[in-house]
Amino acid sequence: MASENSHDAPWDPWASVTNLNYQAPADNDADIMDDGFGPVLSTRTQPRSASPQLSENEERPAGYQPLGEDDNQEKALLNGMGLVEKVRQQITATDGRVDERLVAQVRATRGWLSQQCGDFEATSRYEQLEYLEVFGILLDRISTLRKARRFLDHRRTQQGHKICALQKGLKSLREKLQLQRQQTVELQTENSELVRGGGQDRCRATELCQSLQELEEDYIGLEEARGELERKNWELRQDLKGLQQVNAGLTSRNSALEDQSRKYECNATVFRRDCDKLEKENARLGQKNADLEYQVSVLEEVISYTPPRRIDSTRP
């Protein structure tokens, strides 16, 4: 967790992208740990003149390219691309289990880019908004996976408890049934002895018959209870099949999001290549313009040149 003095330290979005051990300031912890996963904008801003630095030993995220000192927004965007790739790989590798620290980085970087969008050039603002949308889709995907997994785990736990309870109840019913059968055999033996004894103690025989009838009624009730337990077990199995279908749908949606992320990465590569071509063309035109200016200056000197007047020696 952040320290108590985190309110006095400036928030560094660069650290949130490159350092897995980084955690957002304390006033954002409640939102980050919340499972709502809505859009989060940091309440802190970084000074415009601050230039995030990366030490020599820190690992560069995927998509990182070194740029000039004044390209802080472009640096954050390129490293945000690497963060998108890192989250996508972790979702694929762990079937939805994403490190909470990595989620905090995605949300913090997304909030910082949202605040900086007003400073971007018109030519790059569309690209920035596309990556902000990717961050939002990733956060929604992580939230959906976690909620579905928690729901599945909760239902699986409930079903396990219910199955254990059903098994215990069925075992108890079988024990009671066996005991009642033994008692029935004993009662029938006693009844036979009474009959052979010439009808002595008919009251005792009547009581035994009544007890036997009660045992038979209890046995019927136990059979009905066992049928009800088997019906509930079937319903739980149907619920489990439905949850498995939901999980398959979430997996399909994850594949679609991966395809969209790859499309945005290709667009970013084409955009950077076009920028390089325009810079080279601009440099060539600047050189040509300097040559033309030099030629114009030479022509102006030639035009402004005035030859010396000749003196006519024949005139008095």
From TrEMBL:
<protein>
    <submittedName>
        <fullName>Uncharacterized protein</fullName>
    </submittedName>
</protein>
<keyword id="KW-0175">Coiled coil</keyword>
<feature type="compositionally biased region" description="Polar residues">
    <location>
        <begin position="42"/>
        <end position="55"/>
    </location>
</feature>
<feature type="coiled-coil region">
    <location>
        <begin position="170"/>
        <end position="295"/>
    </location>
</feature>
<feature type="region of interest" description="Disordered">
    <location>
        <begin position="26"/>
        <end position="70"/>
    </location>
</feature>
